[in-house]
């Protein structure tokens, strides 16, 4: 549908031009396209395929086109179809026929594959930076509140007391796995496809190793058919992004719950909340809610591309143009969510007085009472049954464990002694002094490890 008509004699239908044009979104690849084209021109000159002078004219023309785009002076025309043809057409206008030599030993198929990989590498690097910044925000919040105890939940019911820092470091672990996935994705993205041509390679004596060095790739594609039709790296990014957004959405859900009047564990900074248009008392956690909602959109973009790719024969098919809008949106959504969440976490206030009251409710020390009996010789299943009946009794009497008399305890088991009153939320937490546990010593160790991970990254280790 572009200005290259070839064997066609009739002009393209206007609606068809608009329908097939990708320039409204793939203009974002202009820097990557120009970078790839400059490297290609230099390689052609080194190999004697074009002259050094021709390469100089072409590279200067490409650089000036980049400046025009950055300065907002460039006109994008739908009839030129995509960013590749748009830049080439402008190059021909600026430097004349010599510009037509740029496309020697190259197809749009390997050109777009190159541009997309350059964009993806940049996106992955940016994602890793934002992930580290967000992890640092989690660590800082944990450090500032490392003595605060909260109820730990299963089934959203109070289960056992934990340190808030331990809870926050659970998210650090989630995002550390995300770091691993994106880092792994980068290895398979870092493959240079240029030189694959349309599908079968090219007939010119090109230097692919030079291209890889110029463009910063560590690997070179080994099969031309696969190189032009591979979008696994986009799918991998979108899959990793979906998992990362799921983790953010889980944190968003807890932020929403914890900032509600029913929990009232935290208060969000006004910069990350909104007011109601009708109810003046409201402070809505809109940032967290939107992140929860945007997660579904990222999932959809992954499923859309999986569906597009699932039945495509080798090699390139125009269906693959549909890889970009969802990919760009996924990158934008994830990066903005990580950035805004880092700010939200840095500025939220923990209401220690309310978390302290919460851990005294819900018979949260029941498991510790069962463990107490086990240590005195009772089989765990029997101890579990004893404490379950004790809880029912305490609920009927509307008494916390601390207000039960020793005689009441001993009605359920003669193993209960005066030392049962030494069981507190603090002792419960301190008792879990194993690797991965919530004991203060273990949490201090985990915080130090997390800080070292972040510090090593900043230091380039």
What does this structure look like?
- The chain is mostly helical.
- The chain folds into 3 domains: 14-104, Fumarase/aspartase (N-terminal domain) (Fumarase C, Chain B, domain 1, Orthogonal Bundle), CATH 1.10.275; 109-147 and 164-357, Fumarase/aspartase (Central domain) (Fumarase C, Chain A, domain 2, Up-down Bundle), CATH 1.20.200; 366-458, Ribonucleotide Reductase Protein R1, domain 1.
- It has 18 helices and 6 strands.
- It has a two-stranded antiparallel ribbon with strand order 1-2. A two-stranded parallel sheet has the order 3-4.
Distance N terminus to C terminus?
49 Å
Beta-strand segment tally: 6
The amount of beta strand, in percent, is: under 5%
CATH superfamily of the largest domain: Fumarase/aspartase (Central domain)
Helix content: 55-70%
CATH class of the largest domain: Mainly Alpha
Along the chain, the helix and strand elements come as HHHHHHEEHEHEHHEHHEHHHHHH
Strands of the largest sheet, in order across it?
A: 1-2
Count of individual domains: 3
- Main structural class: mainly alpha
Q: State the shape.
A: elongated
CA gyration radius, whole angstroms? 30 Å
Sheet with the most strands, sense and barrel status: 2 strands, antiparallel
Identify low-pLDDT runs: none
Within the CATH hierarchy, at the fold level, what is the topology of the largest domain? Fumarase C, Chain A, domain 2
Task: Determine the number of helices (DSSP H or I, runs of at least 4 residues).
Answer: 18
